[in-house]
Amino acid sequence: MACAWDFQFRVLLLGDSGVGKTSLLRRYTEEEFIDSTVPTVGVDFCSRIEEPEAGVKVRLQFWDTAGQERYRAVTRSYYRNAACVILLFDLTARKTFESIQNWYQEVTERAQPHPLLYLLLGTKSDMRGQRSVAREEAQSLANSITAPYLETSAKTGSNISAALSLLCRELLSALRQEKQAPVEHSCGGCGVEEETPHKRILCTC
Ligand SMILES: Nc1nc2c(ncn2[C@@H]2O[C@H](COP(=O)(O)OP(=O)(O)OP(=O)(O)O)[C@@H](O)[C@H]2O)c(=O)[nH]1
């Protein structure tokens, strides 16, 4: 049996507690929104397969980390081999925006190898009247860390598919520019043995 995807990337979600990491993933993978969620404990996992180009299947493997400080030691252990880091802040909670620099620093200092790509998302865009971060300042922060910036809502679904499709295309493009080191890879579970050209493509069959 062959693998059901051609490439797999680990995507790490980071941001303060309550910014909406779990909600964004739930909207993206299950097309639902829950008004009252419980804080993530440690790290949760989920995945979805995208087809950014005809015939090219990409499996995004999400690592949804707890934003609460007390889980930091656990979540840090998952930074390794993340191909992409999605940094999230709540558009209605300024403090979460101010934390983004710290989250970015946290990853750049600890993640080995360095992630290929960062994506900055302002969440809860449906709460228009309560906005406390201007689009311009968020865009300026995104520029400073060379990350695309989008505003999303897990509640309405606004921009969520767009954000993840963008991420997929950018990852493929980075991969084609050979920004990742080669490594041998063989898969025991699905019977497919192959050399993948990039170390962050891991088969977990
Ligand atoms: N209005 C609105 N509320 C949202 C949105 N996304 C998340 N929420 C709410 O924000 C709260 C926190 O959402 P979570 O997804 O649990 O946040 P989290 O970042 O995963 O939190 P931790 O697991 O503690 O790190 C919940 O009550 C959600 O319903 C959104 O797009 N719009």
From TrEMBL:
Single Gene Ontology MF annotation: GTP binding
Does the record carry Transmembrane helix as a key word?
A: no
User: Coiled-coil stretches, from where to where?
Assistant: none
Q: Where are the transmembrane segments?
A: none
CDD domains reported in the protein's UniProt record: Rab (cd00154)
Ordered alphabetically, the record's keywords are: GTP-binding, Lipoprotein, Nucleotide-binding
- Domain of life, per UniProt, equals Eukaryota
Per the record, the similarity remark reads:
Belongs to the small GTPase superfamily. Rab family.
Protein name per its UniProtKB record? Ras-related protein Rab-39B
